[in-house]
Amino acid sequence: MALATNEIDELVSLERGEVDRRIYSDQAIFELEMERIFARAWLFLCHESQIREPGDFFQSVMGRDNVLVVRQRDGSIRAMLNTCAHRGNAVCRAEEGNARSFLCTYHGWSYGIDGRLNGVPGLNTFYNGNLDKSRHGLAQVGQVATYKGFIFGTHDISAPPLEEYLGATGRLGLDLIAERGDMETVPGIQKFIIECNWKIAVDNLFDWYHPQISHASAFEPNVLPSLGETRDGGKIDMSGVNMQSGANLELSGGGIIGSKFETVVVLGEYGHAISGPSTSSPGYFDVAPGWRERPQAQGALGPVGIRVAGHPNIFPNTWVTTGMPQISLRIPRDPGHTEIWWFTFMDRNTPRETRDFMISFANRIFGPAGLLEQDDGENWAQATAQTRGVASRRMKHLLNMGLGRGRIIKEGGLARVETLTSEYAQLWTYNSWAQWMKGLDWNELKNATTPGHCI
């Protein structure tokens, strides 16, 4: 049963900085998320380098729908549901590959790489020739579009064009990856499940309060390897690699957040956001992302925003890391389970030794064995589990850090909140989540999630 607008408003309070814990465990709320967010939003599917040749395919996910992203013979890209039009069986079980057709192993219906129904056993005998094959192809995703090699899809044919949806905030992170060279996806997408709600895994992306506690062991001396050094102390050729990251930020008090750093929050339409440490120190620019080097970023973010060393999240669940060039998806499976995917990108001309080192480094930070994601996953799972109790789910999650203390600045058109460590970005994301959950039309939704209207 759909929630009324006033019920949704009660779930997120901007004024108090509170979120109702039911949104992490309630099955009805989860089902509504699938309908009103994941069936409408533009979702990242894969990269063009994964489907270079006609017939190349990659099996991706949109909400809980499995989709096949396929390169067509004319070079175009289609995305279609991986479910037979007859009785629903999957028509492809491989995660990626090359195919001339897709075959349902249940009753033998076969489809072309464009999704058209080509063959039906017994068409002229069992069906008396009366089955209209043109009406029973694979269901097509409403819209598919590419931005600088990154392929997105939406089920909503009325959704705004992809570039408009991304806006300046959504495009910046993708630009930073795409402009590093002839980028391609490193083979082998990491996939694993954490027993947590997807929103907890998303709001952690903006949380700069937790690193000095949760990741204290990772920041101990000699735990993280020095970039560019082999285990025996030798040097690696890092030419062609642009490590524009906050990885070398000076730690203060055992964590990233300290007296030397502020937090800059960049807010975008539809719920996109960037949040990260910042400082006015000139030397900071040596380790911050390269926003400052790009005129379009300077125009969008302004002199304060270009100082942020954060990673954009494209609402709802596409996280772009701007240091190590990666994209991570937080894919909801049910209220208490989230599947995490990691795509790693590299210039095709990167030297082999450098490539191997960067892959190893990426795996040591994130992923099921990553130093940081092991810590995070345990926290997310425990935080989710405590929302299921009869008494504990009556409590609120607090996101009121920094309320009334930050400075909202609008020099370049995007609202930014500059303060010491805050929870503005998380609160912005949850406020946007609530607007999506109301089922607003696209114009209403954009107005309700435009920076400055709410925060």
Features:
10 helices; 455 residues; Naphthalene 1,2-dioxygenase Alpha Subunit, Chain A, domain 1; six-stranded antiparallel beta sheet; four-stranded antiparallel beta sheet; 23% helix; alpha+beta; single chain; Rieske Iron-sulfur Protein; globular
Which secondary structure elements does this structure contain, and how are they paired or packed?
Blueprint: H1 5-9, E1 12-13, E2 18-20, H2 27-38, E3 43-47, E4 56-62, E5 65-71, E6 77-81, E7 96-98, E8 101-103, E9 110-112, E10 117-119, E11 143-147, E12 150-154, H3 162-178, E13 183-185, E14 190-194, H4 198-203, H5 211-214, E15 262-267, E16 273-278, H6 295-305, E17 313-314, E18 318-321, E19 326-334, E20 337-347, H7 352-365, H8 371-385, E21 396-398, E22 407-409, E23 416-419, H9 424-437, H10 442-448
Antiparallel strand pairs: 1-2, 2-21, 3-12, 4-5, 4-7, 5-6, 8-9, 9-10, 11-12, 13-20, 14-20, 15-16, 15-23, 17-18, 18-19, 19-20, 22-23
Please explain how this structure is put together.
About 8% of the residues have low confidence. This protein has 10 helices and 23 strands. It folds into 2 domains: 105 residues, Rieske Iron-sulfur Protein, CATH 2.102.10; 282 residues, Naphthalene 1,2-dioxygenase Alpha Subunit, Chain A, domain 1 (Alpha-Beta Complex). The strands form 6 sheets. Strands 13, 14, 17, 18, 19 and 20 form a 6-stranded antiparallel sheet that branches. A 4-stranded antiparallel sheet has the order 6-5-4-7, with no helix packed on it. The chain has 455 residues and is α+β, with helices and mostly antiparallel strands.
